[in-house]
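pls ignore typos typing on phone
heme C + seq
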Amino acid sequence: MKKYILSCTLLAILAACGGNEEKKTTDTAAAGTAATASTDRSNNPDYQKGLELVGKSDCLTCHKVGDKLIGPSYKEVAAKYENNEENLTMLAGKIIKGGQGVWGNVPMTPHAQLSEEDAKQMVKYIFTLKD
Ligand code: HEC
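k done
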């Protein structure tokens, strides 16, 4: 009899846990849908191409999309500058030649091997991160 009660209790606990688990999954799934709905950039060719170039270079050792690392977050950069031809050229130049003094005293290393076209594509990617 004792054993029977015990296994009933166990079953009840298992069932309760199982129930919770299921609820959590649905919650995260819902949150995931909401996040993609407001920030879906995957169809933007500037986003895709720029992200690929940024991923191939060393940018992500110093930059993150949403948090400051050694350099400013890409979202901060996107928020600071207007998306126009002048800033595109200026920022691409900084990526190639390096920069210092805009965000603090830590310098950004130059990337002399990058073509201006690739550097501009990276800046275009950063501009797609504007909120
Ligand atoms: C060694 C670390 C480091 C690497 C690698 C790096 N950055 Fe930076 N980056 C920085 C720092 C530090 C700053 C802030 C410089 C300043 O204050 O002017 C910065 C600034 C920037 C800015 C803003 C410039 C401005 O004047 O506002 C852009 C855009 C940028 N980085 C893009 C890139 C891209 C794209 C790459 C990859 C090709 C890259 N960074 C690689 C450290 C780095």
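Confidence is low (pLDDT under 50) at residues 16-23, 28-35. The two ends are 63 Å apart (CA to CA). more later
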